[in-house]
Amino acid sequence: MAANTNTSTNTSTNTSTSASTKVNIKPRKVPALIDRPMSFCPGCGHGIIIRLIAECLEELGQDENVIFGIGVGCSSLLGGGLETDRLHCSHGRAGAVCTAMKRVNPDNMVISYQGDGDAYSIGIGETTSAAYRNERFTTFVVNNTNYGMTGGQMSNTTMPGQKTTTSPDGRDCTTTGMPLRFPELVASQFDAAAYVARGSVSTPANINKTKTYIKKALEAQLSGEGYSVVEILSSCPTNWGMTAPDAMKHLDQVVTPHFPLGEFKTRTKEQREVK
Amino acid sequence: MSTVKGEMIKGNEAIAEAAIRAGARFYAGYPITPSSEIMEYMSWRLKEVGGAFVQAESEIAGINMIIGSAACGVRSITASSGPGISLKQEGMTTLSDEELPAVVVNVVRYGNGIGTLLSAQCDYHRETRGGGNGDYRCIVLCPSSVQEAADLTVEAFDLAEKYRMVSVLMTEGALGQMMEPCVLPEMQAPKRFEWGFDGKYTNKKIGIFDRDSMKEAVALNEKYNKVKETEQRWEAHHIEDADYVFVAYGMPGRATIGAVAQLRAQGHKVGYIRPITAWPFPERAFEQVNPDVKGYISIEANATGQLVDDIALTVMRQGKKKGSDSASGNKSTGSPAPVYCNPHVYGVPSTKAIMEDYAKVLSGELKEVY
Amino acid sequence: MSKVLTKPQRCKQCGLCVAVCPKKAISFSTEINTAGYLFTVIDDEACIACGICYTTCPDGVYEIPGTN
Question: Mean pLDDT over all residues of chain A?
Fold first, then answer.
């Protein structure tokens, strides 16, 4: 491998000064579960997010033990490329579908994969009730602050003043409500929930952090601790009218202030033991 | 005189227990009068047999839970009434599209909107045509006794799985609430159907963009034609020589049988057809009817007459089949026999009321609908 | 063997990897793939196989063979 020769010429970043020190480069390969062309828009965060989920499933040895409940919206595009047991749920209803799947197939990993419209508008009842009942599956919500698939209408996570096709003058929160923060709701109101977090895919660092959240959420399911949810802020270059790199900056600068990142609920070792 | 055997049991409870014995191991639903006893029964009985019970937060969540458990291969059932079943319509068309079997019990109550708590038969059109989007159909079974309700519950599961469709047990408030002797079915061991999810992706699925609606339409028609061909169920008597044939299902069907017996005793040549499947409609029953029949009388408990439409369609179709100067037609005009209906709105019409309908047909006071 | 393998047919020209590559080793080709996008090419000399392109790409274009 030519690595040694090349690293020796990049002295500005190379911390190794000895030519005999070998730099270990970690192999990175897209999991077979999702290694297929998908129809997401160029620069959409969905492709990153589903890869992170697939990597975590592989690392936990659960990639051949999983059932997905997929939402309606941009998430539906997953149904064109994901090779697992999966149901394209009715709009908003993945919370209910996954409740039943986990109840009758408790030994399978059950994952709901939804957008903010599917999970928090039409599906707010099912999504919240699954959290309320502490169902043992994991919910991933991809939040891009609009209804992407149908052309960019206002969503419950659209920010104040944000222009969408149904808020052409900018969202007026006095009549439409403030952006909904679901992870905070679960963490503050549902004591038994096992793991609640919000991540972002705006930068490689955030992507890596989000992967750890995803993994912990899936681990909570594996140990049967309770409900787990990770909301992940994603870019929507198409409906935001921006290039993909600008959309990622927009996530950091404009969206994240409304939707703080981090872990809102984790269970301590003691709490896990008590169950 | 009665040959009915078994222990006294409430209709709703018989349906629930019959489902358990048919191997059902998942229930999700929401309470609504007059169906709630089914859910209440399941809330303790499923635990006893190692099944799963979820009191869903809404009717919509309930049917979507049924979708989830059916997708995993588990025999699943839910029950509701009136506006509750209305809420489930998206779920019904979804189950049909995914080709997932399930049993939905509609303990029918009268009225539009919120409706009333009166027993009725006002959901006939909706159950037989499907209230959700698209071309789907459900198998619709109509019991007229607690015993039949228990028996048809088992058949509902078998038929649903045989054809990968939804079976609707369309019963009535009165039947759900009343008690009768019933011999419950034998306990079956539950099994998962082999197309259920196992997490390993054993059964591959076509990607959403690779589905071919043209091909699927052909297969859909083939399926429904096969069901229509093979699964018609009915009870009929005295129709080969009848001047007038009553058609009625469920409890009004049972009352009609009593009315026909009384009318025959008085010398009137009347008969009855009692559909047991509303879909597929028992067209073959009508083939045995007296070719010189003078008319059909629908007995049903709703406001506008719904069953009457299917009777008319069948009679007209068979009239055409046999030719204009013979068979189920008026010899002089060559047209299909008239179809009458005096909708009884709600409840179960008494044999007296049914015989009054007949008298009005004879006197000309009740005009034909078709 | 290149430090990073690519699948040009997957590329949608979103530009995320170009923006985040710490060595500015990624650029767009002058040819289009079958979907009509200009696909990315990596300057293997400049590349340090950090894997950030793999991390950022939504479309599975990249594979890092790694060392064993």
Answer: 91
Q: Which amino acid, residue B62? A: G
C23 pLDDT exceeds 80? yes
In chain B, where the domains are located:
7-184+203-230, 234-363
ipTM: 0.97
Q: What is the DSSP letter of A141?
A: E
| CB-CB contact of A144 with A115 (8 Å) | yes
**Torsion angle in degrees (nearest 10) through CA of B126, B131, B134, B140:** -50
CB B181 within 8 A of CB B10: no
CA distance B118 to B269: 33
- B321: confidence class by pLDDT, cuts 50, 70, 90: low
- Residues of chain A contacting C63 with CB distance shorter than 8 Å: 28-30
Give the distance from residue C5's alpha carbon to the nearest chain A alpha carbon, in angstroms. 10
Q: Parallel, antiparallel, or unpaired: how do β-strands B295-298 and B339-341 relate?
A: parallel
Quick one: residue B115, left, alpha or beta (phi over 0 = left, psi -120 to 50 = alpha)? left
What helix, strand, coil percent values describe chain A, rounded to 5? 40, 15, 45
Q: Angle at Cα C7 formed by Cα C5 and Cα C8, nearest 5°?
A: 120
Question: Which residues, numbered 71 to 110 in chain A, qualify as contacts with chain B under a Cβ-Cβ cut-off of 8 Å?
Answer: 76, 79-81, 83-90, 93, 95-101, 103-105, 107-109
* pLDDT at residue B335, as a whole number: 80
Q: Are C48 and C23 in contact (CB under 8 A)?
A: yes
Q: Torsion over CA of A249, A252, A254 and A258, rounded to 10 degrees?
A: 160
CATH code of the region A41-274 = 3.40.50.970
Give the pTM.
Answer: 0.93
A209 touches chain C (CB under 8 A): no
CA atoms of B340 and B327, how far apart (whole Å)? 19
Q: How many CB atoms lie within 10 A of CB B155?
A: 23
The matching CATH number, chosen from 3.40.50.300, 1.10.150.20, 3.65.10.10, 3.40.50.920, for B234-363 is 3.40.50.920
Distance, in Å, from the CA atom of B147 to the CA atom of B183, rounded to the nearest integer, reads 7
* Amino acid (one-letter) located at A72: V
Q: Is the dihedral of CA B142, B148, B151, B153 positive or negative?
A: positive
Say which CATH superfamily domain B7-184+203-230 falls into: Thiamin diphosphate (ThDP)-binding fold, Pyr/PP domains (3.40.50.970)
